[in-house]
Design brief:
The complex is a heterodimer of chains A (283) and B (125). Chain A is of the alpha+beta class and 283 residues long. Chain A is built from 3 helices and 18 strands. Chain A has a 5-stranded antiparallel β-sheet, with no helix packed on it. A 5-stranded mixed β-sheet of chain A has the order 5-8-9-3-13, with no helix packed on it. Chain A starts with a helix and ends in a 7-residue tail after the last helix. Chain B is mainly beta and 125 residues long. Chain B has a single domain, classed as Sandwich (Immunoglobulin-like), CATH 2.60.40. A 5-stranded mixed β-sheet of chain B has the order 2-3-9-8-5, with no helix packed on it. In chain B, strands 1-4-7-6 form a 4-stranded antiparallel β-sheet, with no helix packed on it. In chain B, a hairpin with a 4-residue loop joins strand 6 and strand 7. Chain B is elongated. The N and C termini of chain B lie far apart (75 Å). The relative contact order of chain B is 0.23. Classes of the chains: A alpha+beta (283), B mainly beta (125). Chains A and B meet through strand 8 and strand 9 of A and strand 6 and strand 7 of B. Strand 9 of chain A pairs parallel with strand 6 of chain B, so a sheet runs across the interface.
């Protein structure tokens, strides 16, 4: 090599840069091809696996998953303990590997879906028909610490104020202790602590509920989900500074401001509920 | 003649072969789990629920292991630690399943050479 460079003054001196140019051109073409294949992978739906062999695609089970509220299924930052979801693995070519959950104490496969059993981080594996792992995805799960309600595109709230006769449709937003919205389909059971003030009008298993304010006073909209009970305080006909005294049956129909919050409280006499209810005043 | 054959046999038995002699296994961590795990040739510490991909290479105190050597990793307690094969023969995915201690068997061409102590820590967020 050295002798060629030293000895080849004329022709070799010119041909070396030419070769370098050729090499550079080949490298550029190679890079373009590689970039092209990467773009192809980027076109895949879902989130890239830890090993970069393909994408994990989160799938909502029904409408009761807050991760799918916007109509598109995005991989939730944290899943709810008790939440159900499905996951597939997308590759740019070839047969799609199956997705399994080896840590069955944290998440198990049941009836064609994954169910989160415990809080913590866990891995899902994309495996081929030969049981070879080709990619890994780690997810996190946390227990529900609070349930807020959301009207249309408004921010989720922990308390509501309604005018007498007003009916609203609300969506449940489960949150963890850090205020992160939790993903995973959950079964909700709604009820009112006082149907004289607030009645539940819609099917109780969904994450959406339609309630109607009947008469002035305070009530709790209660929801059972993932083995715990949460409540949202509702003031009917309350003024802005009226607070949320569940025992305050006084009818103050002077305010019709439905956007005003009242305090979150556990319904009177329900000790079990008090444990599961997070004080919305902290938020 | 017979004495010479016997001598050759004894000589071959005494000297042994010049093949590889197992001296441990070296792990290279390929994936990055969200929480730190400890992967060493003498002990492993994993977290329940998490997976880590490693490449395993057998070490020899004599001649190197030939490329055709079959290295396999097996969990001594599959309820605590799961081991999955990967596309490359020397790569494996280790998954902590639940808290406890077990060991990871290292098999060379079907023979168990050692069992690396493995601790699985409880799941954390």
């Amino acid at each position: 090599m050295t002798s060629v460079r030293l000895g080849g003054k004329g022709r070799h001196a010119r041909s070396a840069p030419l070769a370098a140019r050729w090499l550079r051109a080949v490298a550029l073409v190679g890079a373009a091809l590689l970039t092209g294949s990467c773009d192809e992978d980027q076109d895949l739906p879902g989130d890239r696996g830890d090993l970069g062999e393909g994408n994990f695609v989160y799938r909502c089970l029904g409408v009761n998953d807050s991760a799918c509220a916007s109509g598109t299924a995005l991989l939730p930052q944290v899943l709810a303990v008790g939440g159900r979801f499905d996951m597939s693995f997308a590759v740019s070519s070839g047969p799609a590997p199956a997705v399994i959950s080896p840590a069955s104490e944290l998440v198990r496969r049941d009836n064609g879906a994954f169910e989160v059993l415990k809080a913590g981080q866990f891995a899902l594996l994309a495996v081929t028909g030969n049981s070879e792992v080709i990619d890994i995805k780690h997810l996190a799960a946390a227990p529900i610490a609070e349930v807020r309600v959301q009207r249309d595109k408004e921010l989720p709230v922990a308390r509501l104020a309604l005018a007498p006769g007003e009916a609203v449709t609300l969506g449940a937003v489960p949150l963890d202790a850090w205020g992160v919205t939790l993903g995973g389909a959950l079964t909700y059971t709604w009820r009112s602590s006082s149907s004289a003030q607030v009645s539940v009008e819609s099917l109780p298993q969904l994450n959406k509920v339609r309630i109607r304010a009947n008469a002035a006073g305070a009530a709790a909209l209660m929801v059972d989900v993932a083995g715990a009970t949460f409540s949202v305080a509702v003031e009917v006909g309350a003024t802005q500074d009226n607070g949320a005294s569940a025992s305050d049956g006084g009818a103050d129909s002077g305010s019709l401001d439905a956007g005003v919050d009242a305090a979150v409280t556990a319904p009177p006499g329900d000790a079990a509920l008090a444990d599961a209810t997070v004080d919305g005043g902290a938020s | 003649m017979r004495r010479r054959a016997l001598f050759a046999l004894l000589l071959s038995l005494g000297c042994g072969d010049d093949g590889p002699s197992y001296a441990g296994v070296e792990f290279d961590v390929i994936s990055a789990p969200p929480l730190p795990v400890m992967i060493g040739s003498e002990a492993l510490t994993l977290v329940a629920g998490l997976a880590v991909k490693v490449s395993a290479t057998p070490l020899s105190s004599g001649h190197e292991y030939p490329k055709k050597t079959r290295l396999a990793l097996r969990s001594a307690d599959p309820s605590l630690l799961a081991v999955f094969a990967s596309e490359a023969r020397s790569d494996f995915v280790l998954v902590g399943l639940r808290e406890g201690t077990t060991c990871l068997e290292v098999r060379i061409d079907g023979e168990v050479e050692e069992c690396v102590p493995t601790s699985v820590q409880p799941p954390t967020r």
